[in-house]
């Protein structure tokens, strides 16, 4: 498996892949010509976003000498509303963009981390914090009522899900599936896609007709529904999260058009018995 390394210079040469279409549309990402400042990242927020402690969300430059651990990071955001942002960091740029696309969900995830931290004397992550972290970094949201496709994904019948049912992906028809990136680590790794890159999907049981709406409306509705699902306990542990080979998602990666792409069973692995 290729070891991941992100670009160390500013470029958007990767942004013509379909997995970046929404960022390009909502944030004009492929028009940026240099690393964005914290003020530029603030401007992407759709309104004056507050966290669930009533603090206004702002991206603030993180000192090179400061290295937050997970507990310090979530606590600092909850108590101040300030999101530490490293200079020239793809990970943090994509983290800020995800805040702009899913402000309610990000605020809820931060609050759940904070409450879990305060309820425990341990620095170790609980099952809930493990699930929240996994989804925050690597999550994908599928909006669909197509149980046949979901069953194929759960059983790792990748050719059925991605090849035989290709026309259902990103289709606004009643049996379509709308796929949205959530994890900012996914976005970072997709700047240099590699075989092995896998996310974790969570489903919203709703019609893919959402794809027919303007992008900003899609994300507003998705944010509301995703936050409600997580609030109801969907990420109390990782039992509702299933693997998704990201490069296999139709329309997201040009390389999956090759006839033999899905034959690689080291990537498209069968389900363990």
TrEMBL record:
It comes from the Bacteria. InterPro entries: DUF3025 (IPR021390). This is DUF3025 domain-containing protein. It comes from Psychrosphaera haliotis.
